[in-house]
């Protein structure tokens, strides 16, 4: 623990832990079950597997599990935690925060002097929780203790075309000074009022979704955040950022194909505002004349953007999609699952001393773009190498080898059981998840 009289520097992520349910359904089998064309989910959306919860898991149990893992695996004294921020949109109580549920783990050490509550705005809550935790350490109220950010969600959809874009998972981040992954102070936001995805039904966990509008909002936020981020980056560093300079580019990932298209768009936009700007650029029309082109022309230009960005996608974004492909949409933890995937899939020498560009989006809507600065220390036993080695051993093995595949029929049955049980009174036959 740092002395309270010392100002914190290089505040960021000291440790990471990941958890997802142990059962999943194969997307290619789900295609057959749903009687859709072959490749609709696996190629069209870029998904491979989807984790799901039975009726013995909820957002509280996911959060407790990943929080407990963080403290246990990294030998963290619960008394050293001074702030617990939670990002979720899967709350099961309209008043009591998930953050208070997590106090069960800290109270055993007689530590109740803990700030922080839940942060809720669709998938952006995890990023806001991270910002709040970092601000806690930088603030004059900081007493030298560490912060923890927990991001947990269950992405469930009613029967129909959106159900295949579900998933479930949780992350826990230990936040403090002298971190191997530092949150830079360059941060661009875009917030607006829109009903692209929302949850007005008190008797159901299923959202109301306008799919096309939500994609349009995501894309518009991406454009605006990137342009504003460039300006703020210039003000701080005296130069504009180039996408080529980042070790990785991570996106909020409702499904992987949207991420690929977003990288293509970002790559094209980067060219348009850089040295290659002008009407001769093949992507010029989509940004300068988007209101004048029809859907067919948009798809044609989008295809050109995808072709132009193939190399950049393979190097900087595809490595970040491992968990998105294997687990599905994790809502608030989706973007940070991308960070874990990037860390364990890229060679160390391509990461040390570099920056990672992050784009966060939550429907409703709030979006943000920022960058993480990775430590330049690549020595064996350094904070960054230790973090990556631990994640490689735990996450890759668990996700690839320790989960159980279930048939689409079983998956559908569990979804029905959860739907029937939602909001009902607890009975004597209810199961409870324990650590």
From TrEMBL:
This protein's pathway: Metabolic intermediate biosynthesis; (R)-mevalonate biosynthesis; (R)-mevalonate from acetyl-CoA: step 2/3
Hydroxymethylglutaryl-coenzyme A synthase N-terminal domain location: 9-180
Hydroxymethylglutaryl-coenzyme A synthase C-terminal domain sequence ranges: 181-424
Keywords carried by this UniProt record: Lipid biosynthesis, Lipid metabolism, Steroid biosynthesis, Steroid metabolism, Sterol biosynthesis, Sterol metabolism, Transferase
GO-annotated molecular function: hydroxymethylglutaryl-CoA synthase activity
Pfam family name, one: HMG_CoA_synt_N
GO biological process, one term: sterol biosynthetic process
Binding site for CoA: 214, 257, 261
Residue numbers annotated as active site: 89, 123, 252
E.C. designation(s): 2.3.3.10
Catalysed reactions, as listed in the record: acetoacetyl-CoA + acetyl-CoA + H2O = (3S)-3-hydroxy-3-methylglutaryl-CoA + CoA + H(+)
Highest taxon, organism lineage: Eukaryota
Stated role: This enzyme condenses acetyl-CoA with acetoacetyl-CoA to form HMG-CoA, which is the substrate for HMG-CoA reductase. Catalyzes the condensation of acetyl-CoA with acetoacetyl-CoA to form HMG-CoA.
Family: Belongs to the thiolase-like superfamily. HMG-CoA synthase family.
Protein name, as recorded: Hydroxymethylglutaryl-CoA synthase
Gene source species: Romanomermis culicivorax
Lineage: Eukaryota, Metazoa, Ecdysozoa, Nematoda, Enoplea
């Amino acid at each position: 623990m740092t002395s309270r009289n010392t100002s914190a520097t290089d505040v960021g992520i000291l440790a990471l832990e990941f958890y997802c349910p142990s059962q999943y359904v194969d997307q290619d089998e789900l295609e057959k079950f749903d009687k859709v064309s072959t490749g609709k989910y696996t190629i069209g959306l870029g998904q491979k597997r989807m984790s799901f919860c039975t009726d013995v898991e909820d957002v509280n149990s996911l959060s407790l599990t990943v929080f407990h893992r963080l403290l246990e695996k990294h030998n963290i004294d619960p008394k050293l935690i001074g702030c617990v921020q939670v990002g979720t949109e899967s709350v099961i109580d309209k008043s009591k925060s998930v953050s208070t549920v997590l106090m069960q783990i800290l109270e055993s050490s007689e530590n109740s002097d803990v700030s922080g509550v839940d942060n809720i705005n669709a998938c952006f809550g995890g990023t806001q929780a991270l910002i709040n935790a970092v601000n806690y350490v930088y603030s004059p109220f900081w007493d030298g203790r560490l912060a923890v950010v927990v991001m947990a969600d269950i992405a469930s959809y009613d029967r129909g075309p959106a159900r295949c874009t579900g998933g479930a998972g949780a992350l826990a981040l230990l936040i403090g000074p002298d971190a191997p992954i530092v949150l830079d102070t360059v941060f661009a936001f875009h917030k607006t009022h829109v009903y692209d995805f929302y949850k007005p039904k008190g008797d159901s966990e299923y959202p109301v979704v306008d799919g096309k509008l939500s994609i349009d909002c995501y894309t518009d936020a991406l454009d605006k955040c990137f342009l504003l981020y460039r300006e703020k980056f210039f003000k701080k560093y005296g130069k504009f950022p180039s996408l080529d300079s980042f070790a990785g580019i991570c996106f909020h990932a409702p499904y992987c194909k949207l991420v690929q298209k977003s990288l293509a768009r970002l790559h094209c936009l980067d060219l348009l505002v850089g040295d290659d700007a002008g009407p001769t650029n093949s992507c010029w029309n989509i940004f300068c004349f988007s209101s004048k082109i029809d859907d067919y022309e948009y798809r044609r230009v989008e295809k050109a953007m995808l072709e132009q960005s193939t190399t950049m996608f393979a190097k900087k974004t595809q490595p970040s999609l491992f968990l998105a492909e294997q687990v599905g949409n994790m809502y608030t933890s989706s973007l940070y699952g991308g960070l874990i995937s990037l860390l364990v899939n890229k060679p160390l020498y391509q990461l040390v001393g570099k920056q990672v560009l992050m784009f966060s989006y939550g429907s409703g809507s709030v979006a943000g773009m920022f960058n993480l600065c990775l430590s330049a220390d690549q020595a064996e036993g350094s904070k960054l190498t230790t973090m990556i080695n631990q994640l490689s051993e735990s996450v890759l093995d668990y996700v690839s080898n320790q989960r159980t595949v279930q048939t689409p029929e079983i998956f559908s049955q569990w979804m029905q059981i959860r739907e029937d049980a939602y909001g009902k009174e607890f009975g004597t036959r209810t199961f409870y998840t324990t650590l």
